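Quick one:
INPUT:
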């Protein structure tokens, strides 16, 4: 019997925008090497593998085409969307996921899905000598989060115009680096881009886990907890953020663009 798999565009209400994620619905845990091969076959920034638990929650793992990752926002949003859309979860049920980053939850709020994730505010650091050269930007602030470097480049135009050296970023030995600035568009509070060659993804279209750092940083800088972020990749996507102490609430839309079955 084929194993159901879906492709969902996350943090967008329009097909072929936002960040595409694979969601592979499993009945029982799968072999890790098989999941990695499926993720490579899907060739998306992440593919999610939820497995139901006896308590109504799910174990959830995420793989890029190259490695397993410890936290992924857009594929978690996509997973919740698929579970509700397929009726695996009732429409008014909270989705609960046990992951390498602890318990994560998702709920529906109107036409959006809201994720409850751990906050990961950056700590100020002296940038490695090759970081800014690899990013090709100047910095007004450099920080380090649990997984990545965090760089405020001062101007939204610098975020949009950056052309990183992905090989140089990969040699830094971290998952990736985000660049950000206050938005020059009144529709958004800040803009960002995220590069993760250390995880096999040169540029991620819209990155929920990066907003675990972006939300508390900009909340402190702008003096308010509710913010709207725009990730200025080619596909682009919007993340509605609420900073809440040691947690962040990240909201967005999702749309299914593909349904299929794995035969191997």
């Amino acid at each position: 019997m084929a194993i159901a798999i879906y492709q969902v565009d996350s943090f967008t209400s329009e097909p072929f925008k936002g960040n595409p994620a694979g969601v592979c619905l499993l009945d029982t845990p799968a072999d890790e090497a098989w999941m990695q091969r499926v993720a490579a076959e899907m060739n998306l920034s992440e593919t999610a593998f939820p497995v139901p638990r006896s308590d109504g929650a799910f174990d959830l793992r995420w793989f890029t085409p190259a490695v397993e990752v410890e936290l992924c926002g857009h594929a978690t949003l996509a997973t919740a969307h698929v579970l509700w859309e397929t009726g695996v979860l009732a429409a008014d049920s909270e989705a609960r996921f046990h992951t390498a980053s602890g318990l994560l939850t998702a709920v529906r709020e109107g036409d959006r899905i809201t994720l409850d994730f751990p906050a990961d505010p950056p700590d100020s650091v002296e940038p490695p000598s090759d970081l800014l050269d690899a990013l090709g930007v100047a910095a007004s602030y450099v920080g380090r989060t649990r997984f990545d470097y965090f760089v405020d480049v001062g101007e939204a135009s610098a975020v949009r115009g950056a052309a990183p050296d992905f090989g140089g970023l990969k040699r830094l030995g971290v998952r990736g680096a985000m660049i950000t600035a206050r938005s020059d568009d009144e529709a958004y509070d800040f803009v960002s881009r995220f590069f993760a060659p250390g995880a096999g993804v040169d540029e991620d279209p819209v990155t929920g886990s990066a907003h675990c750092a972006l939300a508390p940083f900009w909340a402190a800088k702008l003096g308010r907890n509710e913010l709207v972020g725009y990730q200025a990749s080619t596909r682009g996507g919007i993340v509605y953020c609420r900073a809440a102490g040691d947690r962040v609430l990240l909201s967005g839309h999702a749309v299914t663009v593909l349904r299929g079955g794995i035969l191997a």
